[in-house]
Design brief:
36% helix; four-stranded antiparallel sheet; 2 domains; binds adenosine-5'-diphosphate; globular; alpha/beta; six-stranded mixed sheet; binds magnesium ion; Rossmann fold
Length: 246
């Protein structure tokens, strides 16, 4: 049985077909990259998988169960976590308190994997993701954190939730090459520890280094699918990305 199987997923907004009968599979323990020009339906696909939108038709089979149309909180509880293209922290809370919230979630309670005091756990997770433990940074309100830290905080949130399938929507956008170079190994480590990852990404060079498979969307349709090496050679992909260096 496939781990995650998307079948003929379709979503329209008025006259716009945002996602047009898209199908693909994600194997457990692998990293799938979703790429495509702006407006090609990437974020809508993420929203359909994670319960932020209901599809007009089609299926999202997670370990054999159709989860399409379930509430987002239910899907989070089943083990699918996502980050947002536009970061959404609790701005007024200190960075580490942003993780205390998921640490008290029903999923974490049920999984029983985190022991100990929640504040300490939150600080441990932040340290693993690059927040300097002995600095003031973990204690600062999220509202004043630099963009790079907010992106890490988003990552830390799905780690705190013990999500088994993690969907990153443009995690690398706005990050420096050095920041991406420090985050990519963390993503590879997540894969090594058994997580499955979907990355919607515009930073193709960086994505292609760590992805096992790529799905290319253009105007809501899947126009190509294959290994990063295969995708780089596809004329249709070059056309969709005209002007974008592969
Ligand atoms: N909530 C919405 N209401 C109306 N149109 C939307 C909405 N969300 C997305 N769209 C439209 O759907 C298409 C796909 O958008 P999106 O999935 O955000 O693309 P991408 O993430 O690839 O840039 C675009 O034409 C966009 O304008
Ligand atoms: Mg998007």
């Amino acid at each position: 049985m496939e781990y995650l199987k998307i079948e003929n997923l379709r979503k329209t907004f008025g006259g716009v077909v945002a996602v047009d009968n898209v199908s693909f599979d994600v194997e457990q323990g692998t990293l799938l990259g979703i790429i495509g020009p702006n407006g090609s339906g990437k974020t809508t696909t993420v929203n359909l998988i994670t319960g932020f939108l209901k599809p007009d038709s089609g299926k999202v089979l997670f370990k054999g169960r159709d989860i399409a149309g379930l509430r987002a909180s239910k899907i989070t509880n089943l083990g699918i976590g996502r980050t947002f293209q536009m970061v959404k922290p609790f701005y007024r809370l200190p960075a580490f308190k942003n993780l205390v919230v998921p640490l008290f979630s029903p999923r974490v309670k049920r999984m029983g994997g985190h022991y100990g005091e929640k504040d300490t756990l939150a600080l441990d997770i932040l340290e693993d993701i690059g927040f300097e433990r002995d600095s003031a940074v973990p204690y600062k309100p999220a509202s004043i954190l630099p963009h790079g830290y907010l992106k890490r905080l988003e990552m830390a949130r799905v780690i705190a939730l013990q999500s088994e399938l993690i969907v990153f929507d443009e995690l690398y956008s706005g990050l420096t090459l050095a920041e991406v170079a420090s985050i990519s190994p963390m993503i590879e480590k997540l894969i090594e520890t058994g997580k499955t990852i979907i990355m919607v990404e515009h930073r193709l060079k960086e994505l292609f280094k760590i992805a096992h498979k790529i799905v290319v969307l253009d105007q809501g349709k899947k126009i190509a699918e294959g290994s990063p090496r295969e995708i780089m050679k596809q004329p249709s992909v070059k056309k969709a990305y005209l002007g974008v260096e592969l």
